[in-house]
Structures are given as C-alpha cells and as structure tokens.
Amino acid sequence: MSEAKTIYLKDYKAPEFTVKTCDLVFELFEEYTQVTNLMQIVKMDKSAKDLVLDSVELELVEIHLNDVKLEEERYVVEKESLRVLDVEDEFKLIIINKIYPHRNSELEGLYKSGNIFCTQNEPEGFRRITPYIDRPDVMAVFKTTLVASREKYPVLLSNGNTESNFKLDDGRHGVTWSDPYPKPSYLFALVAGDLGVVKDKYITASGKYVRLNIYTDKGNESKCKHAMKSLKEAMQWDEEKYGREYDLSLYNIVAVDSFNMGAMENKGLNIFNSAYVLADEDTATDANFMGIQSVIAHEYFHNWTGNRITCRDWFQLTLKEGLTVFRDQCFSADLNSKEVQRIEDVKALRERQFVEDNSPMAHPIQPDSYMAINNFYTATVYEKGAEVIRMLHTLLGEQKYRKAMDLYFDTFDAQAVRTDDFLWAMSKAGEMNLEQFKRWYHQSGTPKLDVDEKFEDGTYTLTLIQKIPHAVDGSEQKPHFFPLKIGLLDESGKEILEKTLLISKEKEEFLFKTSFKPVLSINRDFSAPIIIDQKETHYGFLMKHDTNSFAKYEAAQLFGIQIIESLMQGNDINDEYVRAYGHILESDLDISYKALLLELPSISALMQRQNVVDFELIYDAIEKLQKHLASLYKEKLLEIYSKFHNPLCVDLDANSIGSRSIKNRCLKLLSSLKSNEMAVMANEQYSNSLTMTDKVAALDILENISSEYSAVAFKHFHDKYRQNTLVMNKYFSLLAASHREGTLERVIALQKDAAYNELVPNLVRSLVGTFTRNYKYFHAKDGSGYKFVADKIIDIDKINPQMASSLAGAFKIYKKLNVQNKKMMKVELERVVSTHSLSKNVYEIVSKIIK
Ligand code: ARG
Ligand code: ZN
Q: Could you report the predicted ipTM of this complex, rounded to two decimals?
C-alpha cells in the first residue's frame, strides 16, 4: 500500500530561494548522461537557512558552492530532495549528477523515445534531471549546452536560440542554446537525435522573421505538411484575435513516438506525440488531421497563455489549460465549421468531463488538494476549464473580453500568477462583479437546472431552479452565476426572441409578454456547462425548427434518449421521433452538421442518466432503434451513401470531409441490419477508398457484423501497415472496440503482435484503453474484463505510473454499477490497491474510487 501524502493549496508558501540563472551542460552517452548544473541562487526569505532542492532518483557526483567543492557534512541527500546546509543570501552552486535516460520508462524527465533523447518536464520532471527548485513560481534564465556523438546525434536542440556550435576531436560535438525569457523548469526541453527536418518561415505582423522547423524520424518529412500549415495558421490567428506575436526568431517542433500525453509547449521547442504531427492521406483520418490542427495551435497558444504568463503553483493549472483550450476551440471554429466545432466540443465534454464530475474523482477546475499532480491533467481542468472561460467571454462580450485579455497580458507578463489574477483582469476590464462566478473554480459536480414553464393571461413565466450537487466529501455547494442563452419560438417555428439570461440565484423567474404560449429553446450554444431538466419538451418541433444549430442538435439527442429510454422500459418506438429523424435525412443542411444530427445518442449519454447502470439494457435498446431506422429509411440512406461516396477523393476541404462523414454515418446505421448487402458495401469501400477515414469506417463495420470479409480485410490492413505504428494504433483500437464474440481473447493475443509494445503509451491506449470503453466486454458479467484491465494496471504501473493511472480511471463508474458488476469490480479494485509498491498515481485514483 502506498503512503502517498496529500498536498494542499492552503499550504502554499512562496519559495524561500529563487534561481536567477541556470547554465546546464549535458554530456549524452549511450549508458548515461552527465549533467552539470550551474545556478545563481538568491535567498528570498532571509530567515531561511538551508536550501532544499527537489531531486528524484539522481546519482550525485559532486557539489561546488561558490567554486569550493562541498564536504559531505555540508549537505544531506533526502528521499526526494537535496538539502544544502546553511547557505548565504546569494551564491553560486554547481551540481554534477548522472542519470540513465535509456532506462527511463516513466517518460518523465530525460528519456529515450526510440533513438531520440527527449524530455518531458511538466509538471515535475525536471527534478529527475538535476536538483532544482522545481516549481513554476521559480523562473530563471536558462543556457544549455548539449554534447553528444556527432554521428548518432547530429541534431542537438534546446530552448531559445543557438549561441554557438563546436566540434570535439573524439567524434563528438556540441551546441549551446540560450533562452532570453526567464522560465520555470517545467518549460525546459532538450532533444538529441538523427532527425529529418521540414523548414518553413513566418513573418509576424510587425515584420519579424521567424524560422519554423518540424523535426521527425527520417523518412517522415512528407507527413509534416499539415502540421506546418496549422502552425502558420495558429500564428496568424493569435495576431488577429489576441494581438499576440511570437517572441523568438525560431520555433522548433519535434515529433516523438513515446509520449505520455498529446504534446508539450516547452519554450521555443515543443515536443509532440507523433500522432499530433504526422499525417498524410494514406495513413491519417480526417479526425487525425483536425486533431493535429488543434494540438499544434494549442501548444503555440501556450506561448502567451502559459509561458509568458505562467502558473504560480499546479493548483492553478486551469489558468493556462482551460484558457488555452478555449483559445484552440475558437481557432478550430474559425478555420472550420463553427456549428460542428461547438457540437464536437460539447460532445467531448459530456462523454469525459460529465462522467468524471459525477464520480468519486470529481474535483473543481481548481482543485484544492492532490496526491499526484499528474492525475490532474483532467477533462475537468482542461475542458470544463475552457467552458468557464467561454462563459466569461459570453458574459463580457467579445470587445470587453479582448480588453480584459489585453489587461491580463499587460499586467502579468513574465510572472507566475493565479486564477484570481486572471479573474481580476476579467472583472476590471469587463466591468463586472465576478465574486459569485468564482465558485466555478472551487466547486465540483455538474449543476442541474430545473425548468418550469407557465402561460397565463398573456404572460409566459419561466421558472429556473439550480440544483447544485454536493461535493465528493458530502459538503453542500452554492448556486452558480452563469449566462443562459434562450430562444422563444412561435407555433409556426418562427423565432420571436433570443436573449441571454443571467442566472445567479437558486431560483429565478423570468416573465415574457406574449399573446400565445411559445416553445422554449434553452441553453443555446451550450452557454453554460450544466444539465437541463425540462418538464415539458418539444424535441420533435425543435429538431425541425430551432434556428440555433446547437439547440437543434440537442433536441435530436434528447429526443433520441427519450425514445431509447422508453424502449428500455419495453415500450414501442415513438412515431414522431422516427418522422423527425426522416425529416433531417431529407433536409439540405450542411452535410457535416447533418451527419451530427443523424448520430444516435451514445451509450455513455444514456449511462449517465441511470442511477444503476445496466449496459445490456442500453445497447439492446440502441440496437433496436438503429435497426428500425435503418430498415425504414434504407432507400434514403443508400441514396445518400451513393451520392457522397467518392472513393478516389482525398481532399481535405469541408465538403470532402463532410461527404465522408455523412455517408459513413449512413453506412454505419445501415450496417445494423447485419445483412450481406451491407457487408459487401463495406468491403468494397475498404478495397476501393483511398482515405484512411473510409478504410477505418469500413473495417469497423466489417468487424462488427462478423462477415466473412472481416478476417481478410484485417489481414490485408495488417500486412500493409504493420511497420507504421500510427496506423497500427487504429488496427488495435478497431479490434479492441469490437462487439463480436471473443473480443477479450483477441485483445490478450494482440499483445503478442510484433507491432505492439507496452512501453509505448499510444499502443497501450489503443489496445487496453480502447478496451476499457468497450462496454460489452469490459463490463462482462463474469468480471473477465475487469480482471484483465486490473492485471494491466498492475504491470504497467511498474513501467509507467502515469499510463497506469489513466487506465485506472476506467473504474470510476464503480459506485453506479449494478450489484453483480459491482461485486466483480470490487474484487479487482481491492487487488490493485493492495499491490506492493503501487505508485501514488494509481493509489490516488483507486483509493478514491473504493472509498
Ligand atoms: N501542458 C501540456 C499541454 O496541455 C500537457 C503536459 C502534461 N504532461 C503531463 N505529464 N501531465 O499541452
Ligand atoms: Zn495545454
């Protein structure tokens, strides 16, 4: 059992010392790396005596204080720190230590991804490189020299600009980098490797020339075009929308295969999971291309929201992440389709964050305690955090929001600040009291809004009651302040009013004078991240008439949910829904948007509404509805399919992407008929289509209707792409998501595939991670799915605790399970939590789940 201790925000203390400059020399060898760290350190709190540096698993060689080698009695090596006793007010410290990057499987600090040396230091990786005051409110000017074999590591990169290059006689060479901007250690990065590069340039609005480089394994250069294009689009967007220019003359991006998360915004040297850089028509889906555009932009936007202005401590993480996600969402909306983007963002929020918010792992976007900070890079901190910024944007309006952002940049540039500082700028420039709004930062759980309507004597009364859930510890929480955008429609479907209501009290009443009872369209654009509970509903009507693209989508979803729930209770399929669905099929809406309207509610959406979850009941009902719609609308679905199926088109414009999206939606629905006809169509699509989007859609269908074609197609796919890990991720995901008999057995066997490697997080996510979202087999009544995943968590925890704890999140549904599943899961949770030398990462998640 772990003895992990809890860290509290209330215990925050300003650093006793700070680092002015940090000059690092890395001597990279195959067996070890030697780090020489020269720091100018200043005492900030004059009462402090000892300097305590964070230091994890470092092999100390020697220490020099003001050029004198320190005797051993002058310092103490503690478990995760190095204490230098009795130091002066200002001094120079040199520490030499060794590390072993090739043995680093946690992928934190300095490690090797294939043959590339790279780093991941956010949040606390730097202390695994050299002893340091490893906290974001200590900002230093860094200079870095890398020395390595010239043949094996011709490319040597770090933050900032190149200062000098040198060659050594023994076949080694070196490069010195210097970064003029003071920064916290989590933004430090280095890369060494034999890399291919794609070069480009960007001229900023004020005319500064910026060199842009994307580095990747040799041979992948042609797959960097989309990433480069996205980077330039992001640079321009930030100039236009936020008035922010890039501040160095060089911007480097490096793609590596082994990476715990999506990417990292290190100053001037972003390091990326290769899944968010590499793409071409043959290997990447449309969703992959969109993902690259948004993650490239996200990391670029961090240069101002994260790097220039950073976080005082890790409790403030949403300060940079919520804000930067909001920025990347707006960027994607501007460059693609606004309506589709908003729906996709809300979908992702509800599938991931709402589930988290209704689990024992629920936390405010600004948590007040943690055991492992790595566990808090969550959908709540990121995606709900972005919704909170979006509400501020809605409350202030575009102009005042921009004024407030300008004030934020002007006031806090080069500082490490708090969410309260951000809210101060919003409140001041926005001329709005945000005291109550702050609750969004400190309360957890998804608020519900009860909606009651009344019409009497020419007055329409809207009564809204906030139902705020209790916090995880059972304590009561207070009503929120938020914008609620509504519309009122007359009986012909004409909009008579659109308004943003300000909700602050637990109970609010709004009166409208009308001569008839209007139809309400509520929480338009998803103006607040809440759950609407409406007594009276007009979903069919709104599916037809709502002019707000989000609300129309929402009506389709909620109507679908209503029908599926009624099927679950043994009722028949409601005709009005079926007609409304048909109406959308016939409509000439934008095709990408239409494809979303035609999507049936997810298992996750239905599960969230059950107090006791029974998956079998849910997917039987969904299947029934799919079959009904597919057989009734077969002709229309086939017609849409053939109209938009264009196997040779590989374009990425909105129309081509939309065409693939809608015809694959139709084919998927038709495949619920499980007929040979559909198998033949999917098989032809697999063979003839040039895009990965179409191939993956076809394989998914073939796998799930267990046709004779499936095995052949999968074998062909495997033979063709087995050398390409990014494509093999899709292969493993498709098979792990399968509803066909024997999925778990195949998943177990796939771990032996030559392309599979438990050390590579992307592969683990594809195979095991996808399996945890396969409701049918993960939640198998005999507990076999739980046992498999628990075994994996225990194994992988020894390799990579972050990866293991993210798998453990799959168990967070525990308390809501039916008796039998719950019993099975409990056994596994107890087995995991009592594992010897379990990481604090996994311990924190699992102990919270079974508490
Ligand atoms: N700041 C990065 C981003 O959002 C995420 C890095 C998180 N890394 C981690 N090991 N938790 O772009
Ligand atoms: Zn980020």
A: 0.98
